[in-house]
């Protein structure tokens, strides 16, 4: 667990070098379920850097982002790609992302079939006072069957969105 906390503490400095231009940081805690019987399920921490969403895509406000997940077993996922959100009204919103990246297993039993993996996320959230927001999100990590095997990883997590600059409310 100490390795997990140490690695997580270093992630912001490694991944978020252009913080001044970001829209928000997102910190999460969740439970991962490896879809292989031999794998070790468990807790994980995540950190996302979500850039300004200045594109419209299928009714969503979209932009780029990066993510990092560190599992209690030492597994690490680092990725980057498209992230999007859509306002549902009355402080509710949905979020989604697709972020290809690299998965490094901490234990051989947690091998997902290749280093290249894609994390997809969908969540529902609520804006809190002070601009912070809270989401409940579901994620899936898979190599889309391009690897030797593709057991996949499903997870559920609670995410705290922290704005890095003031956002105007609609």
From TrEMBL:
It comes from Tritonibacter scottomollicae. Keywords: Hydrolase, Signal. This is Acyloxyacyl hydrolase. One of its GO terms (molecular function) is hydrolase activity. InterPro entries: Lipid-A_deacylase-rel. It holds the Pfam family PagL. Residues 1-22 form the signal peptide. The keyword Cytoplasm does not apply.
């Amino acid at each position: 667990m100490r390795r997990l906390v140490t690695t997580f503490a270093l992630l912001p400095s490694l991944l978020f070098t252009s913080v001044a231009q970001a829209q928000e940081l997102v910190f999460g805690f969740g439970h991962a379920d490896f879809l292989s019987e031999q794998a070790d399920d468990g807790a994980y921490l995540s950190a996302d850097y979500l850039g300004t969403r200045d594109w419209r895509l299928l009714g969503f406000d979209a932009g780029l982002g990066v993510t990092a997940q560190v599992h209690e077993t030492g597994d690490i996922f680092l990725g980057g790609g498209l992230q999007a959100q859509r306002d549902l009204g009355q402080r509710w919103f949905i979020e989604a992302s697709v972020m290809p990246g690299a998965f490094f297993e901490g234990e051989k039993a947690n091998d997902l079939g290749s280093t290249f993996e894609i994390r997809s996320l969908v969540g529902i959230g609520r804006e809190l006072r002070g601009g912070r927001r809270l989401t409940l999100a579901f994620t899936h990590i898979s190599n889309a069957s391009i690897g030797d095997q593709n057991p996949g990883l499903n997870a559920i997590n609670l995410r705290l969105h922290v704005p890095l600059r003031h956002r105007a409310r609609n």
